[in-house]
Amino acid sequence: MSAGAAPCWLTCTVHLDPAEGAYAGVPAWNGRGGWLVHAASVFAAHYPTVRRAGDELSLHRFLAVCQVMSAPGVAEPTTGRGARLSVATIAVRAGVSTTVVERSRRYLAVLGLGTEVLRGRHKSFDERIQAWLVGDTSRGWTSVWALHPRRRRPGDPPVDNPTQVRGMIQRTGGPPTGNSFKASTSPRSVVSSGATTPAGPADGAPRRAPTRKVARMGPTGPGEAGLGLSKALRAHRECPGWVRRYSPHAYAAALTRWAEAGWTARDVLQHLDDLTGQGLVIYDQPRNPVKYLLALLSRADLNERPTVMRDAHAAYEAAQAAHRAAAVPAHLAAAAQARQAGRAALDGEGHQQVRQALAQRAATGAIRRAAGNRAEAGATAALIARARRPR
């Protein structure tokens, strides 16, 4: 170390770099300001559809966390990658709680605005020793994020970038304060609506092209069996939330084959549980729940219901219980008959002879005890008289 240079424990930092190829397939941003504008617009447009009960988050706090994670010196200015800050550090710099930071990062992943390329974890013993040698006393590695724009997904509504939000987010100062960010909606005349249908009457305005809807089967159509299965599935208490996003009619045609094969809502849910037990991760927010459910059901044999063994065992147990219940009256009748026979036997000739013998034996014993007592009393009186006789 040259003279005048600071020691390593004051200047060195220890980081855990992502594995080679961790950024493969992960897009990059075109700049911090544009990404912040895009993040605010995507959050305002898609948050109502991905929001979960008990996991609410305001646009103001979400943008505060985004400002800190994308700040210069945290993320790479050209790609948006390598953003590594602990939850506690982000919370202090953004002026929010750690719960808000964790919630914001979850929404970054759900909305497609960020990818966690390296998940944080605790350091091993050897890693802690090596870090301690250079003055790093932390106990874990922070997560590494790549911030990027959301990829276009089927069914995404047009995203509007309000001028008010764009102007405020492009400021390079600290996190926003007060009520700066409000999800303002632009007039309908400004929002891009895609393709339009040909104009109608001369005095009418052009109308938006009809959106593609899932074909529905009426209750009397060929999907009646599938409609019944879909209704039972959505009404089941263990039905996943993403299945309930669509109406039963949307699943009617898709579940017709399974319903005709005898599948029930319990079979579908048991199949999903079996897939989870095999290590398959089932997403909470699939893009198309109908196609996703069909993809999961395609892993099962249509002719083998997952609950057939359980139903057979339940039927066997029910039959055994019914057999035991039917045999109860016969057992009770036999027990009552045995009790009556025992009571009748108490008054029989044998029991009477035994009772007479016992009574005679007791009387004979009493006579013998009385005679013994008289003899003992006489002997005692003789001894007393002899003692009193003068000599």
What is the topology?
Blueprint: H1 8-11, H2 32-50, H3 59-69, H4 87-94, H5 98-110, E1 114-118, E2 121-122, H6 125-133, E3 140-141, E4 144-147, H7 163-169, H8 224-235, H9 248-252, H10 256-260, H11 265-277, H12 289-297, H13 308-346, H14 349-388
Antiparallel strand pairs: 1-4, 2-3
Helix pairs in contact: 2-3, 3-4, 3-5, 4-5, 8-11
Offer a concise description of the structure:
The protein has 391 residues and is mainly alpha-helical. Helix content is 50%, strand content 3%.
Would you mind describing this structure in some detail?
This protein has 391 residues and is mainly alpha-helical. The protein folds into 3 domains: 148 residues, Orthogonal Bundle (Arc Repressor Mutant, subunit A); 74 residues; 80 residues. 50% of the residues lie in helices and 3% in strands. The chain is built from 14 helices and 4 strands. The strands form 2 sheets. The protein has a two-stranded antiparallel ribbon with strand order 1-4. A two-stranded antiparallel ribbon has the order 2-3. 19% of the residues are buried. The N terminus is likely disordered.
List keywords for this structure.
50% helix; two-stranded antiparallel sheet; Arc Repressor Mutant, subunit A; 3 domains; 4 strands; two-stranded antiparallel ribbon; single chain; mainly alpha; 391 residues; 3% strand; disordered N terminus
Give the strand order, joined by hyphens, for the main sheet: 1-4
CATH topology of the largest domain: Arc Repressor Mutant, subunit A
Structural class: mainly alpha
The CATH homologous superfamily of the largest domain? Winged helix-like DNA-binding domain superfamily/Winged helix DNA-binding domain
Q: Helicity, in percent?
A: 40-55%
CATH class of the largest domain: Mainly Alpha
Strand content: under 5%
Query: Count of DSSP E strands?
Result: 4
Please tell me how large the radius of gyration is.
43 Å
